[in-house]
């Protein structure tokens, strides 16, 4: 029996959510960080969306955020010309890395010893986090502001995207290996280590390239401009979201649209699958994050499958373990002057 997708709504941000990232699976589950133009990146429990805290210290919009694999450190990129590294357990700021322009993207190496940054000054920077006083290594070559930069190939190489170009760099020699130009602005980039797949979006196109050679693998066209796409860990399907407020699910092999979901009240800026593939998260212009089940009706996190009573004639439908409230209601987090990340908790709503 068909069941209706019931997303969890994570409120708390007061401006558009522009980036999100999951940690790996830890002994305490997995975690979700979100970047927002309100300047207060937030940390949540990944499977439920429960609010843990906000990292307070940026003086401008936060454009990028990430967690290291074991969720002990967080990094953020902001319009205040800084990237910051945080203790993700206590919420304490560990270091501020000054830049000469807006910072858009941050990424840890697998061992968490180095941080890669990129932004409007067109330079990639590599910081040794064990030597915060040392000058970063710099890689030049981009001709417009860098939107995304990611470690790949076990940190031996770097992938980066500016307005219409994706480049592959060798970490050891700090030189460009290859570049690919597009006729439209690249809106997002995701790297899948298993199989070395690169997921790109530009215009209405969702494209897959080899992360090793940048050669195209396949591409799909969506019915609206797409801002972000994410490939399911087992590569059976993908999700994508964009300007028409919808989340689309496509079969990876055939490109067939399987489903589409409406829930956000503004364009979707970022989507990502959780590390276990059980859900995907989306962040929107409406200031919320939403969590969507991969298998609708499965008991997981706050979703509880409630079977209908025999002979009652009711349809089976997923339930969530908390009181329902109005979806469009956005709640503010702690006051501007709070010096603790632990304060009034934004609610997760059905």
Automatic annotation (TrEMBL):
InterPro entries: WD40/YVTN_repeat-like_dom_sf (IPR015943), WD40_repeat_dom_sf (IPR036322), WD40_rpt (IPR001680). Pfam families: WD40 (PF00400). SMART domains: WD40 (SM00320). Residues 337-350 have a biased composition (Polar residues). Keywords: Kinase, mRNA processing, mRNA splicing, Receptor, Repeat, Transferase, WD repeat. It comes from the Eukaryota. Residues 326-350 are annotated as: Disordered. WD repeats lie at residues 55-96, 96-137, 139-179, 261-293. The keyword Signal does not apply. GO terms for molecular function: kinase activity. Belongs to the WD repeat STRAP family. PANTHER family: EUKARYOTIC TRANSLATION INITIATION FACTOR 3 SUBUNIT I, SERINE-THREONINE KINASE RECEPTOR-ASSOCIATED PROTEIN. This is Serine-threonine kinase receptor-associated protein. The gene is Strap.
């Amino acid at each position: 029996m068909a069941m209706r997708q019931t997303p969890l709504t994570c409120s708390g941000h007061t401006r558009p959510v522009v980036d999100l990232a999951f940690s790996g699976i830890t002994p305490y589950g997995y975690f979700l960080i979100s970047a927002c133009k309100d300047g207060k990146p937030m940390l949540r429990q990944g499977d439920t969306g429960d609010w843990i805290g906000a990292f307070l210290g940026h003086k401008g919009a936060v454009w990028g955020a990430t967690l290291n694999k074991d969720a002990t450190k967080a990094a953020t990129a902001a319009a205040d010309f800084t990237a910051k590294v945080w203790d993700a357990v206590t919420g304490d700021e560990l270091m501020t890395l000054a830049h000469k322009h807006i910072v858009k993207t941050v990424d840890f190496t697998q061992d968490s010893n180095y941080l890669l940054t990129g932004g409007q000054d067109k330079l990639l920077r590599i910081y040794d986090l064990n030597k915060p006083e040392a000058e970063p290594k710099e890689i030049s070559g981009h001709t417009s502001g860098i939107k995304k930069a990611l470690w790949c190939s076990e940190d031996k190489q770097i992938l980066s995207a500016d307005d219409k170009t994706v480049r592959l760099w060798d970490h050891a020699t700090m030189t460009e290996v290859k570049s690919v130009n597009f006729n439209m602005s690249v809106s997002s980039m995701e790297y899948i280590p298993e199989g070395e797949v690169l997921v790109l979006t530009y215009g209405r196109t969702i494209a897959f390239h080899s992360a090793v050679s940048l050669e195209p693998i396949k591409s799909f066209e969506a019915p609206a401009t797409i801002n972000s796409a994410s490939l399911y860990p087992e590569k059976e399907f993908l999700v994508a979201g964009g300007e028409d407020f919808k989340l689309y699910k496509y079969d990876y092999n055939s490109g067939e649209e399987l489903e589409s979901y409406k829930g956000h009240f503004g364009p979707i800026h970022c989507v990502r699958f959780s590390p276990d593939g059980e859900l995907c998260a989306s962040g929107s212009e409406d200031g919320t994050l939403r969590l969507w089940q991969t298998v609708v009706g499965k008991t997981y996190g706050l979703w509880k499958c409630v079977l209908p009573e025999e002979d009652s004639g009711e349809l089976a439908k997923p339930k969530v373990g908390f009181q329902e409230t109005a979806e469009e209601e956005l709640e503010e987090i702690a006051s501007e002057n709070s010096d603790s990340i632990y304060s009034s908790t934004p609610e997760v709503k059905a």
